[in-house]
Amino acid sequence: MKQFRMTTLLIATAMLLCACPDKIGQNFIYIANKSDKKIAFQILKNKQDETFYCSNVGRTILFEVESNSTSKLDDGDVYSSWDSSLKLLTVFVLDGELYEEYWQQPCDTIRKYVPILHRYQLTLADLQRMNWTVAYPPEE
């Protein structure tokens, strides 16, 4: 009986010591618009693209954030998957007023008339340092 308790104790201790989280991060990020204009944004995972993704077979949908407000972007556990499957987030911030005007247009028209105001390339360390809040305009 004593050996059974000792074995159980060793197994329990080993389980506690090895119970490491398989995901790092959290389930959401914030987009803080600290400007006086509405913005639109898009987040691409593991892509270092220079321009945002848009669709020629349907409407291009980006998220919008009103001026001087914050939006919580909850994408399940995507932002907590900083392991072998998630290395980089690219965030495009666009002029929200112009995006609203052109969002139903073909991709080349949107890219021509809706400027990218800022492009972030963020690692896990960047997001942790920023307290999981991407601010526009950027805070140095």
How would you explain this protein's 3D organization?
The protein is an alpha+beta fold. It has helices spanning 2-18, 96-102, 107-113, 124-129; strands spanning 28-33, 39-45, 63-65, 69-74, 89-95, 116-122, 133-136. The protein has a four-stranded antiparallel β-sheet. A three-stranded mixed β-sheet has the order 4-1-7, with no helix packed on it. The longest helix has 17 residues, at 2-18. The chain is globular.
Question: What descriptive keywords fit this protein?
Answer:
4 helices, 7 strands, 140 residues, Immunoglobulin-like, 3-stranded mixed sheet, alpha+beta, globular, single chain, 4-stranded antiparallel sheet
- Describe the sheet with the most strands: 4 strands, antiparallel
- Radius of gyration (Å): 21 Å
Helix share, percent: 25-40%
Name of the top-level CATH class: Mainly Beta
Topology:
Blueprint: H1 2-18, E1 28-33, E2 39-45, E3 63-65, E4 69-74, E5 89-95, H2 96-102, H3 107-113, E6 116-122, H4 124-129, E7 133-136
Parallel strand pairs: 1-7
Antiparallel strand pairs: 1-4, 2-3, 2-5, 5-6
Summarize the structure.
Helix content is 26%, strand content 29%.
